[in-house]
Fold these 2 entries.
Entry 1:
Amino acid sequence: MLQVRNIEKYYGNKNNVTKALDRVSFDVADGEFIAIMGASGSGKTTLLNCISTIDSVSAGAVLLDGDNIAELPSGELARFRRERLGFVFQDFNLLDTLTVEENIGLALSLNHTDPAAVRRRVEEMAGKLEITDILGKFPYQISGGQKQRAACARAMVAGQSLLLADEPTGALDSRASKNLLEILTRMNRAMGATILMVTHDAYSASYAGRVLFLKDGRIFNELFKGERTRPVFYHEILEVLAVLGGDVSDVI
């Protein structure tokens, strides 16, 4: 589904250049759940931003289903984001003036989807994420965990190809974090969602099937979960982080 090919990202000018990404390459198969980890400044959020088209690459290519996203005309880029990319962020990014139902269905409405079809698809997604009872409420009336579920529903309601999550548990307590990670796992396994998640947290990463570790803008290592249990995978992630950062507490 996703091919990242030797991408580089530079910031600054010729007198002061920072290389945030250094020839990063990897593939994401349809239906994978991948976590991206690394210390602050390792390039993981920059990588997600380049894949999401929030930022552009300085060199290399990012291809989604064979399409080079850097070559899309500006007029098609917004539509591409709405229809093929789903976003889940730490701060939810829900609009306070819209109900949960309206927030979830916003991308469909922007695409001029029939209102009855929008309502049907919103209710279907809300049912899968167990938030049907809050569809009529506004974001300020619901909990952080419910907001993040609504954000997940919004990210997938239009049948997007790829779900991008940037520290999705960062604003949640431990119970809500666990619930969200179980929801992401359900979306991946039962709904076929392909997920790419940036996280500092080894516990969160242990829910993924593969973990990519970045250091100084390069892929330092990767782990595959395979048939191992999540607790075993969690401890393996901690071991890599200890080598990666020297002090595990600095990077989780």
Entry 2:
Amino acid sequence: MAEVKTASAKPSSQGSHAGKPKNSSNFMINLLIVGACVAVGIIVFKFVLGSAANFHDGATREHPSNFMGTMYSGGFVVPILLGTLLTLLSFIVERTLTIVKAKGSMDAGEFVRKVQYHLANKNVQAAISECDKQAGSVGNVMRAGLVKYNEMVNNSDLDRDQKVANIKKEVDEATALELPMLEKNLVFLSTIASCATLLGLFGTVMGMIRSFAAMANAGAPDAAALASGISEALINTALGISTSFFAIIAYNFFTTLIDGITFGIDESGFTLTQSFEANYK
């Protein structure tokens, strides 16, 4: 992992300029996704949860008749939490599709063993064919390294150490291109995991303030009204905690998968340099 971070910290000036429009485009797309999810959350809040059928008093919407009506009574934080939940689900789907593709069609360990076999027999083209079959991040990095590997085999101007350094540099550069794709948008999952609970608690506190203020204005304590207000306020906590729970599970699950892919990438780079040193002394 240390090598990966070092490699990614030294991009060429051309690469850094080329990456700016792409990063800006990704930011705008993510912003649109978040905005669309919040908009859907507001629509669900107003027209589904706020339907007159969910209340005993119809359009007045003061006495919920079911759970959806109670959720509506949770206040203005509920649609924000619904939008947060939908944002979480959107990025879970996006990360799942990306990481499944990055894992490729073959287990990284099995793939590396096949490449090692072909390199031991000095059949670089067969090893490159295995990379095309793997079609994942490990295969992409390995293929870039193998192309340079094949170039170094036929190079008579450099000594062995220089050739190995060139292969390693190529692998590091290919790794620096693959890792951002794997880790992209995980920040949304970690942020939702941290903030959803706090947002739910904020909604609960606001609901409690409204409940006690209504009791104070009424003059006489009403235990039933207080209990109803508290239950409505706790809807925010329940929604926030459940959203945070799924965000934490998703974040840890994806980071574990990424760690496995990263290990395969590191192993592929080690395989190439070790193989070249062993076969071309």
